[in-house]
Write a structure and sequence with these properties.
The structure is a single chain. The protein has 3 helices and 7 strands; from the N terminus they run ββββαβββαα. It is an alpha+beta fold. It has a 7-stranded antiparallel sheet, sandwiched between helices. β6 and β7 form a beta hairpin. α1 packs across α2. The longest helix is centred in the last third of the chain and has 21 residues.
């Protein structure tokens, strides 16, 4: 059974030190992909952009700087936990977003009620999808080689 948790959060898109604007961001968590969260950014004048990354990365990033590669998350002030910075990077391009921490924590709490942290692997649907995806990848490699 596919279940999900959704929320909409207003974030500041930090274009530069002088320019930022608020945008709606849809947060989504689904039991069919229990390790990931998806953030869909609704930028004015552009098609929505969705990023998927580890739920645990978002959980950790609320309290301390973390992330490798394309996604970095850190509280603006580790002592107050008032706001979080989310930096997304593709090649040399990057986008920086600032969000209030409480709505992120509320969303993460709802995901934890649906699938407790550490219990993701217990979902039979996830294992079936993973096996199916691995078989498909192996079949594609064999037919290409």
């Amino acid at each position: 059974m596919r279940e999900s948790v959704q929320a909409e959060v207003m974030m500041s898109f930090l274009v530069s030190e002088e320019l930022s604007f608020r945008i709606p961001v849809e947060l989504r968590y689904e039991t069919c992909d229990p390790y990931a969260v998806r953030l869909t950014f609704h930028l004015p004048g552009d098609a929505p952009v969705t990023w998927a990354f580890g739920r645990e990365l978002l959980i950790d990033g609320v309290g301390r700087p973390c992330g490798d590669g394309d996604v970095h998350i850190a509280p603006t002030d580790p002592d107050s936990l008032g706001e979080v910075l989310i930096r997304l990077q593709v090649g040399g391009d990057q986008a920086l977003f600032r969000s209030s921490t409480p709505p992120l924590v509320a969303f993460l709490d709802r995901t934890d009620k649906l699938v407790p942290l550490g219990q993701e692997g217990a979902l039979a649907d996830f294992d079936a999808h993973l096996d199916e995806a691995l078989c498909r990848i192996l079949a594609e490699e064999q037919s290409a080689g």
